[in-house]
UniProtKB/TrEMBL annotation:
Origin organism lineage: Eukaryota, Fungi, Dikarya, Ascomycota, Pezizomycotina
Domain Glycosyl hydrolase family 59 catalytic intervals: 34-356
Record's keyword terms, sorted: Hydrolase, Signal
Domain of life the protein comes from: Eukaryota
Full protein name: Glycoside hydrolase family 30 protein
Domain Glycosyl hydrolase family 30 beta sandwich, chain residue ranges per copy: 363-408
Length: 451
């Protein structure tokens, strides 16, 4: 018996494996909001002051949907020294707001992203309330917003004043021609830092959310959504958001937000059906890495996998890197792109973002795309009905595969990123009845779009 069967088994194993990726566009999951980054901490100002043509090249590489990464989300910081630098004395006194129309270069960047590149998701995020609204009378080093549960100050309860201040900031942007789409009032409130930072738990956050929602609505900003809570990691964010829910305020939110530093996105947040965003993550300790296959947690491959796993296993609708672009500094990969006065250097992380941001546009629905052949697989149906497929091969050998269910197209075009290629469009491949075959090299990422 064995002598007869064994050769047959061997023969079968020598055949190329039938790695079939069966797309099912009729099974849809979350809607994509977008992919993006921030230019906080003064980088927007450096960006604005950069001379052309480099400035235009950096803008294009981040936001251009035909030549760059096509990012569609910009996360701005609401700085504590900004629109209400001086205390009105007490929480119930009328504030004196100031507006310089520049906001550290963020107005220029937001206007340019919005008006020239069609970026519609502008997330304005406060790291802290101004010092005088806080228990520690300091913008830095944690402290609480005066008046939230368990936190009192002789100057009064500043919850409404903070809501008024955030709403004023949205108005100021509107007066400068920028439509803020989302506002956040906490950043990593699970810890204290020697820069703008403020503590909060979910019960306390719920008190601010309730006041802020009512204040935005009363000012006519019913479509400006509130994001919460940008804690440092996934399970910290899950816990605080469940507290927000228990306190009855989760339905006043527009998005559930988490950073990736203290815990990568994991199991979906099943306690709410609001969209979930990963709003800040980077490897802050490695040097400037541009490689795809090497460079550990700053390699292009790592970020391609993190984004893909975020959308396929964590139900993310948005994924943001920390900084988009900064002046060159060899000691950091906290950004996707670095510039000098004469050159622009894009990391493979940037091109990993491009595979998603360019081909899963805002409003796209993720579709069913089971993996095959050990490949990482994700797929989307865009609002115009076109599909896109992202395939990641983290192994060292090439893998042949067949795709079925790509829809009613006659050709697909592969787009390749690996150590040698930056988002390179390849020769078109014929599609028959929604099906085509392709090969992906080891340590590579490919997207497939209608050709
Ligand atoms: C994007 O890049 C294309 C191709 O280089 C260029 O024609 C277009 O003007 C750019 N878009 C913007 C908004 O600059
Ligand atoms: C995924 O997120 C969407 C909102 O974007 C939500 O409606 C859906 O219930 C979520 N699914 C899971 C499994 O959490």
């Amino acid at each position: 018996m064995t002598l007869v069967v064994l050769p047959l088994v061997l023969a079968r194993n020598l055949q190329p494996r039938a790695n079939t990726i069966t797309l099912d566009a009729s099974t849809t999951y979350q809607k994509i909001i977008g992919f993006g980054a921030s230019e906080a901490f003064g980088h927007s100002n450096q960006f604005q002051n950069l001379a052309d043509p480099i400035r235009r090249q950096v803008l294009d590489i981040l936001f251009n949907k035909t030549s760059g990464a096509g990012l569609t989300i910009l996360r701005n910081v609401i700085t504590t020294g900004g629109i209400e630098p001086k205390s009105p004395g007490s929480a119930t006194n009328a504030p004196t707001y100031t507006w310089d129309g520049n906001d550290d270069g963020q107005i220029w960047l937001s206007e340019t992203a919005q008006n020239e590149y069609g970026v519609k998701t502008i997330y304005a995020n406060a790291w802290s309330a101004p010092a005088y609204m806080k228990t520690n009378n300091n913008a830095n080093n944690g402290g609480y917003l005066c008046g939230v549960s368990g936190q009192t100050c002789s100057s009064g309860n500043w919850i409404q004043a903070y809501a008024n201040y955030l709403t004023q900031y949205v108005k100021d942007y509107q007066s400068s021609g920028v439509a803020i789409s989302h506002v956040g009032f906490l950043n990593e409130a699970d810890a204290s830092f020697p820069y703008d930072s403020m503590r909060s738990d979910g019960t306390q956050a719920a008190e601010v959310i309730t006041a802020l929602r009512a204040t935005l609505d009363a000012a006519g900003f019913t479509s400006v959504l509130i994001n919460c809570c940008d804690f440092e990691g996934w399970s910290l964010s899950q816990t605080v958001l469940q507290q927000v829910k228990s306190a009855g305020a989760i339905d006043k939110l527009g998005g559930l937000t988490s950073h990736g530093y203290a815990g990568a996105p994991g199991a979906p947040f099943t306690f709410s059906n609001l969209p979930v965003w990963q709003t800040e993550w980077a490897d802050l300790s490695s040097a400037w890495v541009t490689s795809f296959s090497s460079g550990g947690t700053s390699s292009g491959l790592t970020w391609a996998q993190r984004i893909q796993s975020g959308v396929t296993t964590s139900n993310l609708s948005a994924f943001l890197y920390w900084i988009g672009a900064e002046p060159a500094a060899s000691s950091s990969s906290a950004m996707l792109v670095q510039w000098t006065s004469t050159s622009v250097s894009a990391s493979k992380r940037l091109w990993a973002f491009a595979h998603f941001a360019r081909f899963a546009r805002p409003g796209a629905l993720r579709i069913k795309s089971p993996s095959a052949g050990g490949l990482g697989v994700s797929a989307f149906k865009n609002t115009d009905g076109t599909l896109s497929l992202q395939v990641i091969n983290s192994g060292s050998s090439s893998v042949q595969f067949t795709v079925s269910g790509f829809g009613n197209v006659s050709q697909v075009q592969p787009v390749l990123t690996d150590d040698k290629n930056d988002f390179v469009f390849g020769s078109k491949i014929a599609v028959a009845s929604g099906s085509f075959s392709a090969t992906i090299a080891g340590m590579a990422m490919m997207s497939f779009i209608p050709g």
